[in-house]
Structures are given as structure tokens and as C-alpha cells.
């Protein structure tokens, strides 16, 4: 984790696009930062959110968030797709949400999942942060027993890590178009909801975009991802961040379950890290690209004669109005 | 009979149950399969018995990830006992080659003069020492028996990690390993700790006996926990089963973690290779 803190500081100091921001504190009082990738502009931009490492043992997730940032910074000048969406969208990346749990999984118990909040006078530890959000909290796919791996906490948003995310997202929710949360394992792109079988109002579009993303992912190494609603293809769960984000009005909300399908599970070998990141990158940029096209149609890169004419016309009008 | 979405969790879980069955009864550590994707699935309620799934699915090699052919299977989840499975699979790989590999692995394990002992397969970073791949594969085959027994329509398992493995050199030519393993259970996300004894005989018959800690969370919250204390707990809980083991086996259970890993060399180039 120290390396990730250092990397975040380093990347802020060495790129004019990246700023590091305070998100909140963990149970054990560590600071949670997120990175904002943002091209200087006076335009009103929208936001893409992506968090990794809400579950401690899913080590491939923080690796992907870092890979994603690196790739964007390396390629934004040359890759027209990235260049285009960065004109309209800011990327908010949270490399590790459950920092206490992540450290615990490195130092003590590799397969630890939850955060490290003490319960019952310190006789049992940890709340499943992805059962702790205020989305049908405590109704299905959870446990009220603090020794369970899916303990949903003492109440909705009982955990400081949850509250840190909620506070930021709530304050920017009108600008956030897309909420991605990265997990492992299973090879799924999951849509809302986990807490009910009733599909969200924009289900058709959510599914279409996810299927396009899965197809883009498969092109790289042939890895098969399944796409569908969480309750249908994975299992029912309540209090997840994905459900919560969609319920507060963020239209594109997805959970990624990265490699593999169970052979290595959480202990994914080193030689699969890079291929996993590469293929996932294609899926994530496909989603961002779609969101960009939808909310910023036409785009500044494509200068059609019509838009050129319009802008010339506007310039002329403005010149006339403003002496 | 009603058709189901092949993407549904019930479909993939039932397909895995069928694969647990074939991975155990196949007794072939070189021919283990994993689920690639379900193509067709339907189900039928059978009064007073349970639910029966009819499946068609594609598989891949558990270790290399290479395509291995399609399977047809039925899985009957019974109210009162473990799932009943029928499965038939096409093989895209050369059956003779797999048998040859099995034979080679068997001879390799059987001819150890110093018993193999190991901890954490794979390790925290997913590494598996080359010489330990057969030990891992044998555990996958054996643990498939446990996972088959414990699977339900809404509960599934994967082998997460071998915590300890220890070989017993036998005079009758069979291969015997004693394992403690962690099974990842969904949707509860628990890690169930099981003690497992796998016997692989000359005629390629494989049997696994096991006991699992029923209150897993009392044990699993250190995956840093040492074998000794886990074995002690299992010992207390599983008195009946352990009585069936020889005295030397039982005595040694608590000591395993202290033993250093044996130096192991693989006699010939093994088939196993990690997936891309």
C-alpha cells in the first residue's frame, strides 16, 4: 500500500492532468485519496467514476485502477478516442477504497475481504463495504452477524469508507454519468440491481453497452465475460455501491468482476495481471466512449461542414454582439 | 420443463456441479475441466424429490484454459441428499495423451522417496512451483468430491487454496496425500476449511475423505492461521473420521506446518503450463 501512496503522489507531481484529492479516512485512520484526471478546460464537463479495492483480497482490482491511469496518461496525446472523451469528461479514480483490509490481506490474511472495523468489543472484525451502502440496505444477500463475510454493518453507511464515497458522489451526482466498481473474480460485467429482480428503467441500454464492452474485451485475448443483472447472473445482494449509484440517478452503473473463473480465483498469478488489465482497459474505454458520444454528440474532434458553419456563424454573431 | 437463461447463476452453478462430479470420478488430474460457458439449460420440478437441470455447456482445461469440448449433463438437486449427476463430454484432446500424463504423474508421485510436503498452493501471488502442479491437480480432483457433496441449487464452491499438503509413502503402490484446503463458498463469500485425505490407486481410482469445519468463520479469519490449531479444531470436531485413520497419521496432524518443504524434482517435462 505504501507503494500505491507513493505512486499517487508521484503521478500527481509528474502529470499536469492529474490531481490527488482527499476522499476521507478509514477505520484505522488512514487517508483515502482519489485521483482526478482532467484536461484544463473552461467547459462544463461531466464525470466518470471508477473505484477499485472495495474488497481486500481482490488484488487484481487496484492493479487495474493503476494500469488505467497509466494508460490514459501515456496515450491521451496520441489516442484520438481518449483525447476526445477527455475534452468532455473528467475521470475520478479511486485506486484502493478498503485500504485497511488491503493491508491486512498483505500482512496477515491473504483472503480477507471486509474492512477492519471492530465489533462486539473487538471479538470480531469487518463490515462488507459492498453491503453497507444505502440501497435496500440489509434486505437480501447479507448477514447481521459480524463474523460473516457479508456482514452489512450496524446500519446503512455505518462505515467511514462508505461515507467517504457517498459524500463525494452525492456532492457531484448531477455531473456523474458513469459509476464503475472493479472486483474479482468470475469474468462478469454486472448491471443493477442486486437487490431486486426488477430491471432498471434504462436496462436495455445498460445491457447493450455492457455487451459491446464485453465484445471489445474478448477481441484482445478471447476471454469470455458474461453480461447481465447482478441478481440474475451472480446472486442477490443489497447495499451494494452499484445499486446505490444507480438509485441516486447515475445512469451507467456497472460492477466488473475481473479474471479468472475460479482456477486461481483471488490469487491470480503475476503473468495474468497484464493481460487482464489490457483486456479490461478495452471494455472500460468502450463504456466511457459510449457515454461520451451519447452526452456530447458530434464532439469537437469531428468538424463537419455543418458544425463548422454553425460555429463560424456563432462567432460572427458574438462578434456583432460583443463589440 | 421450463427453459432458463444460460447466463443465469442457476445454470452455471449446476454446470459446475456436473464438472465437480466428473473431475472427481474421472480420477484424472491431467484431464480436469472447468466451465467455459453454458449453452443451453432447462429445468424440471420433480415432486417430493427436487429440481432437475438439463444442461449443455462448453468446457476448458482447468489448468491450461485450452478448450476441451462440450458436455451434456443432468443435475438433480435432491432435498435429502447430495446432487445426482449424469454427464457425458466430448473430448477435443487426445484421450491417450491424457492417460499417459496421468500415468506419468502417478509414477512421479509414487516414486518419491522423501514425502512431498508443501504449504500454500498457490501462494499469495498465484505462483505454483512446477513440481507441485500435480499435488495441486490431485487436490482439485479430490476437493471436487467435497464440493459436489456440499453444493446446492443456491450454494456453490471453488477451491481457493491448499493450505498444507503432505504425502504419505505407501507400500501398496498407491499415492496418498493429506491436505488442508480452503473452499470459497458463494454467495456467502466464506472460506470453508476442510481436511482431506486423497488416495489414488494404481488402477486410477481416486477416493477422497474429508471433514470440514462447519463454523468456518471461527477458523478462516486468519488465512494466516497455522495448520496445527486448525487441525486441532478439526480433530475435536471430526473424531469419528479420524478414528479411521492410522495412529501415525493422526499423531502427525498437528506437526505438519513445522516441516520444511522437501526438495522436489520433476522427472520429465510435465504437460502443465499456465494459461496466457
TrEMBL record, chain A:
Compartments it resides in: Apical cell membrane
Gene Ontology CC entries for this record: apical plasma membrane; extracellular space; side of membrane
Residues at the catalytic site: 257 (proton donor/acceptor)
Superkingdom of this protein's organism: Eukaryota
Membrane topology of the entry: Lipid-anchor; GPI-anchor
Pfam families in the cross-refs: Peptidase_M14 (PF00246)
GO biological process, one term: proteolysis
Keyword Transmembrane (UniProt): yes
Main location: membrane
InterPro entries xref list: CARBOXYPEPT_ZN_1, Peptidase_M14
The entry's keywords: Carboxypeptidase, Cell membrane, Glycoprotein, GPI-anchor, Hydrolase, Lipoprotein, Membrane, Metal-binding, Metalloprotease, Protease, Signal, Transmembrane, Transmembrane helix, Zinc
SUPFAM superfamilies found in the cross-reference section: Zn-dependent exopeptidases
A GO MF term: zinc ion binding
UniProt cofactor(s): Zn(2+)
Residue intervals of the Peptidase M14 domain: 1-291
Transmembrane segments: 295-322
Function noted in UniProt: Carboxypeptidase which preferentially cleaves C-terminal acidic residues from peptides and proteins. Can also cleave C-terminal hydrophobic amino acids, with a preference for small residues over large residues.
Family of this protein: Belongs to the peptidase M14 family.
Protein known as: Carboxypeptidase O
UniProtKB/TrEMBL annotation, chain B:
Regions annotated as coiled coil: none
Superkingdom: Eukaryota
Keyword Repeat in record: yes
Swiss-Prot/TrEMBL keywords: Protease inhibitor, Repeat
Domain Cystatin LXN-type per the UniProt entry, residue ranges: 1-97, 117-221
Name of the featured protein: Cystatin LXN-type domain-containing protein
Pfam entry (one): LXN
Entry keyword Repeat: yes
Family stated for the protein in its record: Belongs to the protease inhibitor I47 (latexin) family.
Cellular component, GO annotation: extracellular space
Gene Ontology molecular function, alphabetical: metalloendopeptidase inhibitor activity
Amino acid at each position: 500500500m505504501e507503494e500505491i501512496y507513493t505512486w499517487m503522489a508521484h503521478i500527481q507531481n509528474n502529470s499536469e492532468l492529474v490531481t490527488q484529492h482527499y476522499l476521507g479516512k478509514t477505520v484505522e485512520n488512514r487517508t483515502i485519496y482519489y485521483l482526478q484526471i482532467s484536461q484544463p478546460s473552461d467547459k462544463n464537463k461531466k464525470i466518470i467514476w471508477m473505484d477499485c479495492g472495495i474488497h481486500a483480497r481482490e488484488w487484481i482490482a487496484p492493479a487495474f485502477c493503476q494500469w488505467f491511469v497509466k494508460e490514459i496518461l501515456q496515450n491521451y496525446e496520441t489516442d484520438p478516442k481518449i483525447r476526445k472523451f477527455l475534452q468532455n469528461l473528467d475521470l475520478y479514480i479511486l485506486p484502493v477504497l478498503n485500504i485497511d483490509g488491503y493491508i491486512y490481506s498483505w500482512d496477515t490474511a491473504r483472503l480477507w475481504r471486509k474492512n477492519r472495523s471492530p465489533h462486539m468489543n473487538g471479538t470480531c472484525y469487518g463490515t462488507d463495504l459492498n453491503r453497507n451502502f444505502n440501497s435496500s440496505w440489509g434486505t437480501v444477500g447479507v448477514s447481521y452477524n459480524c463474523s460473516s463475510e457479508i456482514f452489512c454493518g450496524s446500519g446503512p453507511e455505518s462505515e467511514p469508507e462508505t461515507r467517504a464515497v457517498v459524500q463525494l458522489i452525492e456532492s457531484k451526482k448531477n455531473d456523474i454519468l458513469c459509476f464503475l466498481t472493479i472486483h474479482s473474480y468470475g469474468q462478469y460485467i454486472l448491471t443493477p440491481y442486486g437487490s431486486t429482480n426488477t430491471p432498471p428503467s434504462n436496462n436495455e441500454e445498460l445491457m447493450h453497452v455492457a455487451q459491446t464492452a464485453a465484445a471489445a474485451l474478448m477481441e484482445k485475448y478471447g476471454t469470455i465475460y458474461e453480461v447481465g443483472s447482478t441478481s440474475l447472473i451472480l446472486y442477490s445482494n443489497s447495499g451494494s455501491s452499484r445499486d446505490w449509484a444507480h438509485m441516486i440517478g447515475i445512469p451507467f452503473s456497472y460492477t466488473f468482476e475481473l479474471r479468472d473463473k475460479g482456477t486461481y480465483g483471488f490469487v491470480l498469478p503475476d503473468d495474468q495481471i497484464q493481460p487482464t488489465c489490457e483486456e479490461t482497459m478495452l471494455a472500460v474505454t468502450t463504456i466511457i466512449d459510449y457515454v461520451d458520444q451519447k452526452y456530447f454528440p458530434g464532439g469537437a474532434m469531428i468538424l463537419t461542414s455543418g458544425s463548422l458553419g454553425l460555429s463560424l456563424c456563432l462567432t460572427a454573431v458574438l462578434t456583432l454582439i460583443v463589440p | 420443463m421450463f427453459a432458463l437463461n444460460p447466463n443465469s447463476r442457476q445454470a452455471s452453478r449446476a454446470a459446475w456441479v456436473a464438472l465437480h462430479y466428473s473431475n472427481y470420478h474421472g480420477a484424472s488430474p491431467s484431464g480436469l475441466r472447468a466451465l467455459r460457458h453454458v449453452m443451453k439449460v432447462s429445468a424440471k420440478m420433480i415432486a417430493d424429490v427436487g429440481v432437475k437441470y438439463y444442461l449443455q455447456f462448453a468446457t476448458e482445461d482447468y489448468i491450461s484454459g485450452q478448450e476441451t469440448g462440450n458436455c451434456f449433463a443432468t443435475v438433480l438437486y435432491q432435498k435429502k441428499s447430495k446432487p445426482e449427476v449424469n454427464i457425458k463430454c466430448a473430448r477435443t484432446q487426445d484421450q491417450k495423451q491424457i492417460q499417459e500424463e496421468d500415468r506419468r504423474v502417478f509414477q512421479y508421485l509414487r516414486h518419491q522417496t522423501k514425502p512431498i510436503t508443501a504449504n500454500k498452493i498457490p501462494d499469495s501471488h498465484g505462483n505454483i512451483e512446477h513440481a507441485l502442479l500435480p499435488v495441486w491437480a490431485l487436490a482439485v480432483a479430490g476437493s471436487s468430491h467435497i464440493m459436489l457433496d456440499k453444493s446446492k441449487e443456491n450454494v456453490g464452491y471453488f477451491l481457493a487454496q491448499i493450505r498444507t499438503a503432505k504425502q504419505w509413502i505407501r507400500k501398496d503402490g498407491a499415492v496418498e496425500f493429506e491436505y488442508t484446503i480452503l473452499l470459497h463458498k458463494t454467495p456467502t463469500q466464506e472460506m470453508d476449511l476442510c481436511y482431506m485425505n486423497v488416495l489414488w490407486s494404481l488402477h486410477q481410482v481416486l477416493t477422497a475423505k474429508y471433514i470440514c469445519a462447519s463454523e468456518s468463520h471461527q477458523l478462516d479469519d486468519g488465512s494466516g492461521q497455522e495448520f496445527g490449531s486448525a487441525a486441532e479444531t478439526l480433530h475435536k470436531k471430526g473424531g469419528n473420521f479420524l478414528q479411521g485413520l492410522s495412529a501415525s497419521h493422526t499423531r502427525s496432524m498437528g506437526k505438519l506446518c513445522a516441516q520444511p518443504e522437501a526438495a522436489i524434482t520433476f522427472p520429465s517435462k510435465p504437460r502443465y503450463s499456465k494459461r496466457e
